[in-house]
Specification:
Blueprint (H helix, E strand, L loop, with lengths): L6 H6 L4 E6 L5 H10 L4 E5 H4 L3 H13 L3 E6 L4 H9 L4 E4 L5 H11 L23 H11 L1 E6 L2 H5 L1 H6 L5 E4 L1 H7 L9 H16 L3 E5 L3 H9 L4 E6 H15 L1 H4 L2
Parallel strand pairs: 1-2, 1-8, 2-3, 3-4, 4-5, 5-6, 6-7, 7-8
């Protein structure tokens, strides 16, 4: 099995992270292709919008490990099980969507961490626990240290408490959802609007003050360059659907005379 450099370790060492999102077309073959293209460090598994089952998540994380890619699951943090189970399935961490307050983020940390950092229940009968072969004390220590927790910033409420969210122990990263954030700011789709730029600056300042990293789903090269200039370290460039649509359009453009006949 190829060795996997984790997203968390790359970010902690100041390196850039490139991720690709899989959800609508949850195929291990697609993860194989991402690795074949090269340049990516992890797969964003989108449970929030794709409604993936736990067995599907388990299969996708296994595919990621087989090609040396880390993974995390974007989820709607509705309850303890929703937060904890993707990590037991083999994901390197989670990204909690639609965060609205520091208290919500604090509860997610409690669900994701074992005592004394949180209240997660102990089960080592999975990949994370080396299928019950890892000593329990080491299992707890390793998971509390290595699991990556990202909070998605895409609501006005989260922006208002951005400093408190970034400062929370256990929160490793903030991820900006540009579409929902632009909608919340009253400028849907205008990702470089002054309101959106000021929101990005708020996220950047909060992360810098708390020595945390932040990331974003980029919306074009100008948008990506702006975020990089503001200190962004994790870039999601698209997802399975957008890549396939782009490929189909390119293919049609290559053979435009045949399609227009």
């Amino acid at each position: 099995m190829p060795s996997t450099e984790t997203i968390k370790s790359r970010l902690e060492s100041g390196k850039q992270v490139n991720v690709f999102s899989v959800g609508a077309i949850p195929s291990p073959k697609l993860i194989d292709l991402v690795a074949l293209v090269g340049g990516y460090h992890g797969i964003w598994i989108d449970e929030e919008h794709a409604g993936l089952s736990l067995p599907q998540i388990e299969l996708l994380t296994l595919a990621c490990r087989s090609v040396g890619l880390d993974s995390y699951v974007r989820l709607a943090p509705l309850n303890y099980a929703a937060v904890m189970r993707p990590m037991e399935a083999g994901a390197g961490g989670i990204m909690a969507a639609q965060i609205r307050s520091a208290e919500e983020a604090r509860q997610i940390v409690r669900w994701a961490k074992f005592p004394p950092l949180g209240e997660r229940g102990l089960n080592a009968s999975n990949f994370e626990g080396e299928y019950a072969t890892r000593p329990l004390a080491r299992h707890v220590e390793t998971c509390n240290r290595d699991r990556w927790l990202s909070m998605q910033i895409e609501t006005l409420e989260a922006l208002h408490e951005i400093d408190q969210i970034a400062a929370l122990p256990g929160v490793d990263h903030l991820f900006v959802g540009p579409a929902d954030l632009s909608l919340a700011l009253g400028v849907p789709g205008e990702f470089l609007h002054p309101k959106c730029l000021e929101a990005l600056r708020q996220v950047s300042r909060a992360c810098e003050a708390s020595c945390k990293t932040w990331g974003i789903l980029v919306r074009g090269t100008d948008h990506a360059a702006t975020c990089r200039d503001l200190g962004c370290k994790l870039f999601a460039y698209g997802n399975d659907l957008s890549a396939i649509i782009a490929g189909l359009r390119t293919l049609r453009g290559t053979y435009a005379d045949f399609f227009d006949a």
